[in-house]
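Hi everyone,

Forwarding the result from last night's run.
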Amino acid sequence: MLEAYAPILVLLAISVLNAVGMVVASHFLGPIRPTPVKRSPYESGITPLGDTRERFSVKFYMVAILFIVFDLETVFLIPWAVSFRTLGLFGFVEMLIFIAVLVVGFVYAWKKGALQWE
């Protein structure tokens, strides 16, 4: 049984050795010339102001998480749209239920004030 997986294990071993070898080679062969400009903090073309451990409002994270959740949920619409004709009425009703659950969740988050920046 091991014979069937041997080529995959060999390929995996070669890939891991290649990746490790490239990292080690770049560490030893790459030029290291630290300068004050390279060591200075850089953020979007301007010198950072204030403390780097600045606290953000929880609302920022709530909006970000809600965006990711609803964005990922809409990805499920793509395979449904591709196979829409083969699914028929059953697939259409299932997607309506799915979208209804999303809308209820979105309205709930909206009413709770999770989308307010204030």
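The longest helix spans residues 2-29.

Cheers,
N.
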